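Retry 2 of 3 after timeout on previous attempt. Resubmitting structure tokens to design endpoint.
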């Protein structure tokens, strides 16, 4: 059976996860979480770009 992946939803979920890491970094005053949040935002943007078919 074939699994259909929704890249657009995954992209939005990665972006929301990145935002949550930014909030956790701000609340907990943990600098390392900013890097993880930025990484999640970048992955989410890549998934959204791939879902729109804008890959070069």
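Retry 2 succeeded. Sequence:
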């Amino acid at each position: 059976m074939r699994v259909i992946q929704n890249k657009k939803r995954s992209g939005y979920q990665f972006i929301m996860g990145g935002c949550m890491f930014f909030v956790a970094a701000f609340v907990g005053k943990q600098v390392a979480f900013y890097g993880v949040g930025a990484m999640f935002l970048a992955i989410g943007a890549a998934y959204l770009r791939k879902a729109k078919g804008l890959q070069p």
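Attempt log closed. The chain is about 75% helix and 0% strand.
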